[in-house]
Amino acid sequence: MVSSEILPAHEPGRPDDVASVPDDVTSVPDDVTSVIETTIGALVHLCLAVACLVAMFIALFGTVDVVSTYLFGRPVPLARELPKELLVLVIFMAMPTAMRNDRNVAVDLFIEFTSSAVRTASRVFVLTLCGALFGFLTWQSWFAALDSWSVHETVPAAVRIPIYPIKTLMCVALAVTTIECMRLLVATVLPRAVPVVQPDGEG
Predict the structure, then answer these.
(1) How many structural domains does the chain have?
(2) pTM of the model
């Protein structure tokens, strides 16, 4: 049976009252947080894309060198020097994604038996330490990149390949890792201010 009772037009707690609130009162903080989250996420994924491309290049470069050496007796120049320099990019460019998806090496032998407060305090301590460490490395790598650009540093090999772009990209990767550490720290201390990001591959 359908009730014929008529509800008041402005009953407290009804969805009509929520919809009547001006958009700029509730949507601005969410919009700002969403923009920050989207920007950091885009930087993290960009670093991962660069790491994948560099890793693919190293694999193809090594394959060409092996084929050229054993079939034609002519090794490819920089077959040893260039992959060694590029391997740094693979490691550091993948670091922001490892940090974002919480894929760092962790020993949970004792921490899993502690209370949630202790685990939260431990996570805050670790993220603060990681942020400070990566921030220091970013600062140092910035000056190293500037010095490399100033002298146009190259790979010490028969074929001179510029090395300063590699150092610049490494500085960028460290900076993105530092930013991601700070985002995770804020999300841990203020969980309502930063939305939880699901790791890749998880629902």
Answers:
(1) 1
(2) 0.76
